[in-house]
Amino acid sequence: MKKLINSPENVVHEAMEGMVAAHGDLLKAHFDPNFLFRADAPVKGKVAIVSGGGSGHEPMHGGFVGKGMLDAACPGAVFTSPTPDQMHEATKAVNGGKGVLHIVKNYTGDVLNFEMAADLARGEGIEVEAVVIDDDVAVKDSTWTAGRRGVGTTVLAEKICGAAAEAGQSLTEVAALCKKVNAQGRSMGMALTSCTVPHVGKPTFEIGEEEMEMGVGIHGEPGRQRLKIANADSITEMLLKPIIEDIPFKSGDNVLLFVNSMGGTPAIELYVIYRKAHEILTKAGIKVTRNLVGPYITSLEMAGTSITVLKLDDQLTSLWDAAVHTPALRWRA
Amino acid sequence: MKKLINSPENVVHEAMEGMVAAHGDLLKAHFDPNFLFRADAPVKGKVAIVSGGGSGHEPMHGGFVGKGMLDAACPGAVFTSPTPDQMHEATKAVNGGKGVLHIVKNYTGDVLNFEMAADLARGEGIEVEAVVIDDDVAVKDSTWTAGRRGVGTTVLAEKICGAAAEAGQSLTEVAALCKKVNAQGRSMGMALTSCTVPHVGKPTFEIGEEEMEMGVGIHGEPGRQRLKIANADSITEMLLKPIIEDIPFKSGDNVLLFVNSMGGTPAIELYVIYRKAHEILTKAGIKVTRNLVGPYITSLEMAGTSITVLKLDDQLTSLWDAAVHTPALRWRA
Fold it and tell me: Does domain A185-323 have CATH number 3.40.30.10?
């Protein structure tokens, strides 16, 4: 196993220390239980947003903590759900008196542990809403989920809901918005290689030199099919077709197109994919009015890509454009 | 070879098309000869900055085209210098009447071809200055250079000089500033794995499961030594020590610390490295006042990291903080 780490046991803790050393103006760390939270938390009178999940998907979620996005992120061990005490303590730490939204990717452990944390916090008088993201069209159920998995739309939901919370919306409004983003976003991914979980020490799955996994999950879970590797244009078509047909996206829609690296796929390849995805959508009369290209929801060093399409309206567009200042996403309105 | 491309011949062209499809508000493409340039070029009365080099180091340089950074970037084939006609045509396209600075990484082909382009442009009455970046402390000469290679400091020079040009500085001033950044920046990198050049189809170099290449170049050129793989803290020490001793950086210095991914190293590992680098510098009395963490000068999908340290003063700090809006770096002052 070739990794720039000191030990599998310490990688999450040390990465959190590195995040604080680099971005101490934006975030702080709480250890035992582990979470990263906004340096200025709690923000009085603002709905707070907490997310989290297994580590190994960086910059998600810690890299999205900051003004205009998350108030706290709870990192579990690599590819392992955080424990309820992490989300419970994070919820208490960032609660500014207007309630807390939990954004949860649909994996069984995450869902159960977030529910337990929400119950504990509610028992202490904190208003908590939870929205589960399940945008992955690849498979109906999977290794670690009942129902669809939560993937790329999570990033977009965290940005958009973060902007709404910053603008003073109520917990009910921000939660409804999160459900709307989930309802309007669809994703699918694929892998050329496996990744290696540090404490496992060997690749999560075997894949031949001529093979690719279509519909792969962000932990390397099996997807739809194992196919002979194809060219980038064909792969882009295979990912986009099920996405477009699912909602379905229609001629006249305005969308955000998000082309994501699974970690090991370089930018030059992402732009080859983006080019074809943009062309396919444009030909279908679907207008790409916003985009995001880069490694934002990854699977350690896995080579591969995922595509997310989110249907936009004026509300979502304006919240996407609103100021954000986090380690991984940063712009002003 | 597992890559998300259509063919090795088309990858650069198609990635440029993808860049324009995604970032048409910021940049345009010129094909044959190939270059990306600011959508609002030429900017009248502003010094223009042109850089370029082999592709495969994305987002460098195309991802740095935009307000506050580069006016144009000339991508060669993967790991191959662009040809003089690319830099010549780019120079003409972005010249706003106040002269053009070429920022050139010290590789023999790049230096010769940029010189030829500068001569052609000067023959047409365009004032051109060129500054060669040679910040890599790993080796004195290398496969493709006389003298030190140009690596991470290039990214910082492009940002800082871009801000100075935007602020109205003259060509003489911006060129002097670029030399100053080069004089005050030092880098060193290492690799855990090789990368594969698309038109070659096999790894650039062989490396054992237990080995790492210390001082590797951004094309996979040999570095200082092939060692048994060490832990992240030891690797960070091995990279930082030659950097600190070179200028040398001294107690009391303010610096920018840039921890870069060679492409295949995920963010979680970069922050483990950042943590230790920050600690070493702090213990030496060197204060990290600015930083950059991520994949900014890569070697395709190579796993590895490089560290760059740049000595800051008030001038450089304020130019670093100035607004920038490019695909890969974006903030407001």
Answer: no
